[in-house]
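PROTEIN DESIGN WORKSHEET
SECTION A - STRUCTURE
LENGTH: 1207
TOKENS:
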């Protein structure tokens, strides 16, 4: 039985600063029971009458958009929200009336097919969500049975508020649970919250002593009863207020006792918990927000075209109705020219006496007839194309990261074409440009710098200072033999392999390495097979420190009830010994404290405070006699920051027994209180303890650039894409990373905006908040104005390529983003080649993204990997998540996910350009073919004096957009390539066609519509004239509506499909099948449909085999129409390609004509493709060449001047 296991004895009740065990109540806890704090949970009594009266939500979670009952009405509503679909619904309803120019079935069936296809797509997507729900809701967890004290497996969906559950190691929590006890003696457990906040570090949770002391095994819960009164369901992940009523005790509860749904139990064998919140009341579901609805610019413009076409349809109907009314009125008085319409027998439609009403009825009929100007299958075809494009993106092997088995993943297909229109990329730094895989590379101990490793920033600095030879030397120095150790890139023979004992300050080195091994919250895991020790740490930095300590001879291998065990090299004996440090307190790290400390007792009984933290908080805490190495350490820290490294200061002190007793008493009282100022009390007490420290040194870890980042940035810059970096790192680190990835270069003028001026610092010391804010605001505005003036003056006479970089910190950004000044900030930023925002909060990242998106009106793309990037990703037009090491929160909130930043190059320059080009051409062609078809209807109706007579059979009308012209346009949207991937890379400026929206401009759209008008005119007039005097049977019957309509329809099918042949740039076998298959399908349909009884086929009965096919004029007319309809487009494209080529057309010339016989043209196009960039490695090389040229020019001038003086 599970309950028979031996509990792990690890007593951490006094270690963590924010645990809550022996708590006491204060008066302000009276909020329990009031508004917002009314939840009552009867633990272990979910079936009690009191519990059932509460009627809390069940634990079944549904993320689907539809239910079986709501699918049909809700999805129909979604479909008919589209104005085009609603229009076709109205015309379909009108087709049921006598006003309809065609049969109701032929009108409603295509609409039904289109709506059904869209609903099927919606259903498939929702079924995927349903399957995920089923998988989650059917997970099993052990639930207490009640009277018999046994735990039985139940599905998650069956859980109720008040149930007692047992969760095993590596399992997810099924609901929000109150932690009662765990496998550790003091009910501590370790929780991974990656699904909640994207963080992979483990969190420590701890139950109350009142429950952990009595609930050890399964059978202990048989008689357990308690009542929890707590806050109502809310979305705050980091707070929880409640009370536990256990027997006569009334105990306060905090977030430390709350285990959140979808968190995972780690490094703990099992926990017992009481269900507090279930299903949609849980905090993780409360945090679930509907992702913002994003639509591409092309789709929004397409809506405008649809509205324009509606205007055209209504205008044509209006004009036709006026003419029809006039002609109908003229039929009065026996002068009837349209005798065949029998106006004398007409009730209204052709009645000369009621011409105005006839005109109104005609208007409604014409609106139905001209509905074929609107492509009914446009939306569904685009949806199909985008889904297929997304499949190709997901399947691209060149965007697959083998190391983590992560392919690209287009989480939504709505924004495919938007990838080809990106103007600005806003990027996170850590984990996006860098690996978020920290490596211990340097350290400063006792004023001496150690570590011969070379960072990428140092190589970049060497290169930008002109020292290529130096960079080569550094590379040689960085070479190291032996296997790669994750988190450790340190090399220095002075301290490696135990050589540190020979150093003059060996005792300081010993304390330094010992602090690395002891001052942390990492958890060791020993592989039983190999004996190797690995670590679970709260952050990559901390893992790197523990690994470094191990590699330098201080191996942390065990955490027990009494503390931490390490194997260290004894300074006196020179041998490895095991030592245990009793861990008394952990003063945890947070963003306000910027430090972390532990209080331990060593084997000699000494009390030690070991501390590590940021330089700006640690140096001020040093004792007077603890600053021996301060000056040298500060120098090293500055050097490390310049090299792009993250630094921490290490210090310690011995603690007096009496002092510790006093601290422990105050500390326990503070952490046991439940007042609002509990955190400030703890901070105040720990602050007093962390004083008078003795400096040991500093650590430096490197967050390496991801592979290919500089090259990717360079290529994006050549494509004209602007790149902004929004990071939480300090300014020095961000600047040096900017140099390393070529966002910054030596010749750039840096416009730095910060609040580090002496005046602001003096005001901050004075502490007058309003004065500080006003002075800070004025300072930021002044710096922005000065920067803008600098840019406005333009490049200096000596350098026309001068570029500017804007670097601003988080404090300044607060004021720059205020409504009164944000436009100034945007104007300044857009005038700079590079923008780096340092110390940015998640909210500031989102606000900057919103400002760029709304202020420039251009497409923005945000890319990040962490939970702090979610706001930025959702605010941008396109959000790209990096599936890195910071969890999946960013990926889950993104529109697309990739594994490495470098894949952004292919995603944008190749897939982005292709999708933009394909969708643009596809929509233009859609309107072309429908205008061609619709204008022939209009011309025929005009030819018949606007009598609302359609030129074609009902089913001809219905199936044009569904069968005879739809598949080729889908194939165009999926397979066409105006330029190959290789040329997309070679000519990156091609990407600007999308940024400037050249392929979907109004000029191009109107041009395609005009082409459709020309085709329609050629079709109608050639067919009408050629068939006017033709005989089609032995009885001398001339061509009627059936013959003329069949001939015109054949010409339309041929012309629109041959137009597709001329428009395609890249043929595949799929295009051949769908184009020629669509033409063949028309003839097959005409034969089969014509063979059906006349009551169904009406005027198409035997029209093809018996009338059209035997007549040579039919085939000759079709040939003539194809020539006359397509020659104008062919001539236009030929002239354009020869004399006014677009950029992609110039590249097509290279591909087809100029590969070998016109090298000058190739080079000319190549030079045009290289944008004069101001960032990237290309710009850096160009600047180096310019510097060299100016040097030689000056040298020649000096030589000439000297020669003249000698003469």
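SECTION B - SEQUENCE
RESIDUE ASSIGNMENT:
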């Amino acid at each position: 039985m599970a309950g028979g296991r031996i509990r792990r004895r690890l007593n951490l009740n006094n270690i963590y600063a924010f645990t809550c065990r022996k708590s006491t109540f204060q008066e302000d806890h009276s909020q329990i029971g009031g508004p917002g704090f009314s939840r009552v949970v009867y633990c272990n009594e979910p079936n009690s009458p009191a519990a059932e009266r509460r009627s809390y939500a069940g634990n079944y979670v549904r993320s689907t958009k539809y239910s079986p009952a709501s699918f049909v009405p809700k999805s129909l509503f979604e479909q008919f929200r589209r104005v085009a679909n609603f229009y076709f619904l109205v015309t379909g309803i009108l087709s049921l009336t006598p006003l309809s120019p065609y049969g109701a079935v032929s009108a409603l069936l295509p609409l039904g097919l289109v709506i059904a296809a869209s609903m099927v797509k919606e259903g498939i997507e929702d079924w995927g969500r349903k399957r995920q729900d089923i998988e989650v809701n059917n997970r099993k967890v052990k639930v207490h049975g009640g009277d018999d004290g046994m735990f039985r497996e139940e599905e998650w969906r069956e859980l109720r508020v008040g149930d007692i559950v047992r969760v095993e190691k590596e399992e997810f929590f099924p609901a929000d649970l109150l932690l009662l006890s765990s496998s550790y003696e003091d009910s501590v457990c370790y929780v991974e919250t990656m699904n909640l906040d994207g963080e992979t570090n483990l969190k420590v949770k701890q139950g109350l002593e009142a429950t952990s002391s009595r609930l050890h095994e399964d059978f202990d819960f048989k008689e357990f009863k308690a009542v929890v009164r707590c806050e109502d369901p809310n979305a705050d992940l980091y707070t929880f207020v409640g009370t536990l009523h256990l027997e006569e005790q009334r105990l306060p509860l905090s977030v430390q006792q709350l285990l959140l749904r979808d968190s995972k139990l780690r490094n703990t064998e099992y926990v017992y918990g009481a269900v507090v919140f279930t299903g949609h009341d849980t905090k993780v579901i409360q945090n679930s927000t509907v992702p913002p609805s994003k639509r591409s610019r092309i789709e929004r413009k397409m809506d405008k075209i649809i509205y324009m076409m509606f205007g055209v349809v209504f205008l044509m109907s209006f004009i036709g109705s006026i003419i029809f009314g006039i002609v109908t009125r003229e039929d009065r008085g026996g002068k009837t020219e349209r005798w065949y319409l029998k106006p004398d027998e007409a009730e209204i439609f052709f009645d000369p006496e009621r011409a105005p009403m006839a005109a109104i009825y005609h208007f409604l009929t014409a609106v139905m007839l001209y509905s074929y100007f609107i492509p009914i299958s446009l939306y569904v075809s685009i949806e199909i194309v985008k889904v297929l494009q997304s499949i190709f993106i997901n399947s691209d092997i060149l965007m697959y990261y083998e190391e983590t088995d992560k392919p690209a993943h287009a989480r939504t297909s709505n924004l495919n074409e938007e990838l080809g229109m990106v103007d600005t990329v806003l990027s996170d730094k850590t984990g996006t440009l860098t690996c978020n895989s920290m490596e211990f590379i340097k350290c400063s101990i006792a004023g001496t710098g150690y570590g011969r490793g070379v960072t990428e920033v140092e190589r970049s600095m060497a290169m930008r200072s002109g020292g290529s030879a130096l960079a080569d030397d550094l590379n040689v120095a960085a070479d190291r033999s032996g296997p790669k150790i994750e988190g450790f890139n340190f090399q220095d023979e002075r301290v490696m392999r135990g050589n540190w004992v020979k150093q003059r300050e060996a005792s300081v080195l010993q304390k330094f390495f010992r602090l690395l091994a002891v001052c942390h919250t990492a958890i060791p895991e020993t592989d039983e097979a190999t004996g190797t020790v690995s670590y679970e740490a709260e952050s990559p930095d901390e893992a790197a420190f523990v690994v470094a300590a191990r590699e330098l001879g201080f191996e942390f291998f065990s955490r027990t009830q009494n503390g931490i065990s390490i194997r260290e090299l004894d300074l006196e004996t020179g041998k490895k010994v095991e030592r245990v440090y009793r861990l008394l307190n952990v003063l945890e790290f947070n963003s306000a404290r910027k430090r972390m400390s532990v209080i331990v007792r060593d084997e000699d009984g000494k009390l030690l405070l070991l501390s590590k933290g940021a330089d700006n908080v640690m140096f001020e805490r040093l004792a007077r006699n603890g600053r021996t190495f301060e000056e040298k350490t500060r120098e090293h820290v500055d050097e490390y920051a310049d090299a792009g490294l993250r630094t921490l200061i290490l210090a310690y002190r011995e603690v007096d027994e009496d002092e510790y007793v006093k601290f422990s008493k105050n500390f326990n009282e503070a952490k046991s209180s439940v007042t609002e100022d509990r955190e400030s009390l703890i901070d105040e007490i720990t602050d007093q303890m962390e004083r008078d420290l003795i400096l040991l040194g500093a650590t430096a870890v490197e967050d390496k650039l991801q592979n290919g980042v500089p090259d990717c940035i360079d290529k994006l810059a050549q494509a004209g894409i602007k790149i902004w970096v929004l990071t939480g790192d300090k300014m020095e680190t961000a600047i040096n990373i900017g140099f390393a990835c070529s966002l910054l270069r030596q010749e750039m003028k840096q416009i730095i905006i910060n609040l580090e001026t002496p005046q602001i610092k003096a005001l901050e010391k004075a502490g007058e908040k309003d004065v500080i804010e006003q002075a800070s605001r004025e300072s930021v505005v002044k710096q922005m104005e000065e920067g803008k003036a600098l840019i406005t003056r333009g490049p200096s006479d000596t350098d026309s390529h001068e570029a500017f970089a804007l670097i601003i910190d988080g404090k300044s950004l607060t004021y720059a983003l205020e409504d009164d000044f944000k436009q100034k900030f945007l104007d300044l930023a857009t005038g700079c080649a590079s923008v780096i925002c340092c110390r940015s909060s998640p909210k500031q990242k989102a606000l900057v993204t919103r400002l760029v998106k709304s202020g420039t009106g251009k497409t923005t793309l945000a890319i990040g990997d962490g939970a702090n990037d979610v706001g930025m990703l959702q605010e941008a037009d396109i959000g790209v998540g990096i599936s890195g090491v910071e969890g999946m929160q960013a990926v889950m909130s993104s529109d697309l996910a990739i594994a490495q930043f470098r894949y952004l190059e292919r995603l944008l320059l190749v897939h982005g350009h292709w999708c933009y080009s394909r969708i643009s051409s596809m929509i233009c062609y859609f309107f072309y073919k429908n205008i061609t078809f619709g204008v022939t209807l209009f011309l025929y109706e005009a030819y018949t004096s606007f009598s609302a007579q359609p030129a074609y059979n009902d089913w001809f009308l219905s199936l044009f957009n569904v069968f005879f012209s739809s598949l080729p346009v889908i194939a165009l949207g999926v397979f066409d390539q105006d330029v190959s991937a290789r040329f997309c890379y070679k000519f990156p400026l091609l990407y600007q066609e999308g940024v400037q929206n050249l392929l979907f401009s109004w000029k191009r759209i109107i041009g395609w519509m005009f082409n459709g008008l020309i085709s329609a005119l050629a079709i109608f007039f050639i067919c009408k004239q050629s068939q006017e005097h033709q005989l089609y049977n032995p009885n001398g019957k001339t061509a009627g509506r059936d013959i003329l309509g069949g001939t015109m329809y054949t010409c339309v099918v041929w012309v629109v499909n041959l137009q597709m042949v001329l428009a395609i740039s890249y043929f595949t076998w799929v295009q051949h099948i769908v184009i020629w298959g669509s033409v063949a399908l028309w003839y097959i349909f005409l034969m089969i449909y014509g063979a059906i009884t006349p009551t169904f086929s009406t005027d198409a009965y035997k029209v093809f085999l018996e009338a059209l096919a035997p007549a040579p004029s039919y085939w000759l007319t079709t040939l003539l129409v194809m020539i006359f309809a397509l020659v104008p487009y062919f001539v236009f494209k030929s002239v354009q390609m020869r004399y006014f080529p677009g950029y992609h057309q110039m590249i097509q010339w290279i591909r087809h004509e100029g590969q070998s016989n016109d090298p000058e043209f190739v080079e000319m196009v190549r030079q045009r493709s290289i944008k004069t960039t101001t960032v990237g490695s290309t710009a850096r090389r160009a600047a180096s060449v310019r510097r060299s040229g100016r040097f030689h020019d000056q040298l020649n001038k000096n030589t000439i001047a000297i020669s003249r003086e000698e003469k």
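SECTION C - NOTES
The longest helix spans residues 903-943.
Residues 833 and 1174 are 6 Å apart (CA to CA).
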